[in-house]
Amino acid sequence: MVRSEPAAWRGAGRAGDARPSLPGAGRDFGRRRRRLPREARCGACRVGLERASRHYCEGLDKLAKAEGLTVKPDEGLLDEVTGLVEYPIVLDGQYRRGFVRPLPDGLPPEVLATAMRTHQKYFSCLNADGTPAPRFLFVANNVTPDGGKTIAAGNERVLRARLSDARFFWNQDRKSAARKPR
What we know:
This protein has one domain. Helices cover about 40% and strands about 15% of the residues. It is built from five helices and six strands, in the order E-E-H-H-E-H-E-H-E-E-H. Strands 3-5-6-4 form a four-stranded antiparallel sheet, sandwiched between helices. It has a two-stranded antiparallel ribbon with strand order 1-2. The longest helix has about 30 residues, at about 150-180. The termini are far apart.
């Protein structure tokens, strides 16, 4: 059976028990489960999804502007991230400039953005001229005592590996395209 309640509720009782804060939420009524109100499904912050999305946008823009950058618009990713976190905090990270060098040494902007978006749910940052910046933003699920430095360092390490993989496959695709007769 797939659990539909937030992880924070697990261990608060048996799977079919009602939660005291939301009467009847999660209780099994035959084959159907009662859905939580839309505001409660967003998590402990208990704000509507539209308001949460606006909050994330403001946080992303504020952090990007502090660095003199802009966030690459991505409504789909914003909607996805809005449904993933309960205690949102916007953080930033960076990666090696070697990935954003002009071709053939670097990666195309589309490959950079795709690796960040699909695998890690990171937002790409752009310089004032619209070129990719070696920075990314993400929404973490908790506040840490060190202000998110440990989380950012871990995300930077993971992204470095993802971008190295993307570079490998990009180079392999270029080699195989060069070998194919037209």
